[in-house]
Each structure stands twice: as C-alpha cells, then as structure tokens.
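Chapter summary example.
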Amino acid sequence: MEKITATVYDTIDPYQWVTDVAHEAWKARDKEVWTNNIQDLITPDAVILDAGCGLGRLLPRLWSAKKIVMVEPDLRRFLHASLVAKCLINQDQEVLKKLQHDGFVQTNEYERLLQEIYSLPLKNEKVPKRPSKRRSQQLSL
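The structure predicted for these 141 residues follows.
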C-alpha cells in the first residue's frame, strides 16, 4: 500500500486586519453621520433624491420615505439598486441577503435577475421606472 502525504497551506492576507479595522471604522462613522444628520430627515411624507444611488446600499434606510428617486449613471449599478428596491417592495429577504454578498454578482442567478429587472422594470409609486432610452442602450450583460 502506498502512503499518501498531503500538506495544506492557508493563504492569509497579512494586511487583512488593516482592512478589517478600516471597515469597522467606516461603519462606525457611517452610523454616526446617519444618526446625527440624516435619520430625522427621512419622514413618511419625504421625497428623496438618491443621486448616485450606486448599488442601492441606502435604500433600506430610506424606505420609510414617501418616494425615492434613484439616479445612477452606471446602468448595471442602477439595475442592481432596482433589484434591491424590488426586494424591499416584495419583502423578499432571501434575495436581498444574496445581493449583499460580493460572490453573488458572479452567478447566473444574478445575471438572470438583472435581465429580468431590465426587461420588466419596477412599476411602483415609491421608486422610478426604467432608465432613459439613452442609458438603456449601454447595457451589456
């Protein structure tokens, strides 16, 4: 019988602790700014312009407003934010959690969801409809 020997090495980012500390500091600062300056402005009768909405990270925090107008020049990011809005409208916590993980954006399911939101835009008073025709032509999924 042959003897099999295996050696396993863990790859560790020597500066991961720096990344972790910076991330925690950013989260603490974000929470402080939100609590001290913004939170009280989000009322049930507020209309919010989320200029540069990006991936829709703030949508759950802004959701108590009457209407949220999302603006994002990058169509793919706008579609991602629209997916977040759709999850909030439909109270789909499962997909909302998936959207928060970086690895999910590399899956076929994510691509399918982007195509779906592109071809069937949101129809809701709270969030905008399909992006303008000019921006729609930039989509290359």
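To summarize the output: The longest helix spans residues 16-38.
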